[in-house]
Amino acid sequence: MKSDIRVCSAWRERHDRPVYSLGDRCPDCGAATENTAPAPFNPGDPYGEYRRALNRPGR
Ligand SMILES: [Zn+2]
Questions:
Q1: What confidence score (pLDDT) does residue 27 get?
Q2: For residue 29, is it within any domain?
Q3: 38 versus 22: which is more confidently predicted?
């Protein structure tokens, strides 16, 4: 499934946080937007839940 949400391609340089848009241009700075997939729950630690399940307290 394709996401309709787009994000300013230059937000890291021009904004404090991602600027989302449904159009081709950032409504804030006018830069081109790029498509973005829904963010994973925790991109930095994909196995965190699994690891925590193995490390249950009380065992
Ligand atoms: Zn922008």
A1: 95
A2: yes
A3: 22
